[in-house]
């Protein structure tokens, strides 16, 4: 597929997806959403790709959210089953996805970042759910993910005021994992991805799936059911499950195959 609104690069088992509409601060419209749906479908289905990093083109924006000018001009609004950017309603991907936030992450842009497993933010990054200022609401997951990630009162304080939050405050609130110097968001995210890639991808997928499924039920139920989760069963049946203890006993680095 020819990519018009994004770029994809692969570094070993790491897929780098760049939102590429810098002329509008990487704001997204319908065609971009459908393109990104296919991009993340391909990543999810590729056994050789273990981790994804999402960032924005240029040095000003990660993603400014919904392309309001496109919408105001009569452009049709909508996306595929994966949601905004093919990510915000993608609940079946057990591979880690890291947001490298290199500038503004507004509205849907912030919702993309919240849908990722980690957020690495440049010191010039800014986050907000400003939809109420333009008569909208953050219905691509922001209204539900932010309270779950930072607590109800803190989230309400951001959502009801539509205020902007710096990368530093995002770290203090708990939705940012690390703040790095301006221009180094991607490098920082790749450092996290490379560290994750040293672990068994089967174990990582099992861990992510167990966390996601477990958050939706009681602690007792989560512990009782976790061994029945598909990714956990796949881990136990994998070559990596044998390789890990073997490499440890032989005092050598493990050779993960991801199956």
UniProtKB/TrEMBL annotation:
CDD domains with a match to the protein in the record: crotonase-like
BP-aspect Gene Ontology terms: fatty acid beta-oxidation
A GO MF label: enoyl-CoA hydratase activity
Enzyme Commission number(s) of this protein: 4.2.1.17
Keywords: Lyase
Residue stretches in coiled coil: none
SUPFAM superfamilies cross-referenced by the UniProt entry: ClpP/crotonase
Family: Belongs to the enoyl-CoA hydratase/isomerase family.
UniProt name for this protein: Enoyl-CoA hydratase
